[in-house]
Specification:
Elements lengths: L1 E6 L2 E4 L4 E9 L6 E7 L6 E7 L4 E3 L7 E6 L4 E6 L8 E8 L14 E2 L3 E6 L1
Length: about 120
């Protein structure tokens, strides 16, 4: 089992930056994939960034060049650095991990474990 806890959300103006953190605990040695999703009311949850054990990253087109996913293995923490934020980035953000596979973002798949979520609001 794995437990996830996000932090670092909040409100920012257009063009600003935020860094989300996700503390990971439990069977961390079994994780093969880590990712960030986001969701707005009435819309399907979308994956915005992923990172596999080989260090390969994948990003949704909407965030490429602005968001960076990374991890600190010593702290068992996943990060999402978000720069040049836009109002359309406003959403609940969730970290996620999987113990079995690491799909491409284009696969539109869910991972096995999802955090509680944290709100990010970007004002114009």
């Amino acid at each position: 089992e794995v437990q996830l806890a996000e932090s670092g959300g909040g409100s920012v103006e257009t063009g600003g930056s935020l860094r989300l953190s996700c503390a990971v605990s439990g069977d961390t040695y079994r994780i093969v994939c880590m990712a960030w999703y986001r969701q707005t009311p009435g819309k399907k949850r979308e994956e915005v960034a992923s990172l596999d054990t080989a260090g390969t990253t994948d990003y949704a087109d909407s965030v490429k060049g602005r968001f960076t996913i990374s991890q600190d293995n010593a702290k068992n923490t996943l990060y999402l650095q978000m720069n040049n934020l836009k109002p359309e980035d406003t959403a609940m953000y969730y970290c996620a991990v999987d113990l079995l596979w690491c799909p491409r973002i284009s696969d539109e798949a869910d991972l096995g474990y999802l955090g509680q979520g944290i709100q990010v609001t970007v004002s114009s």
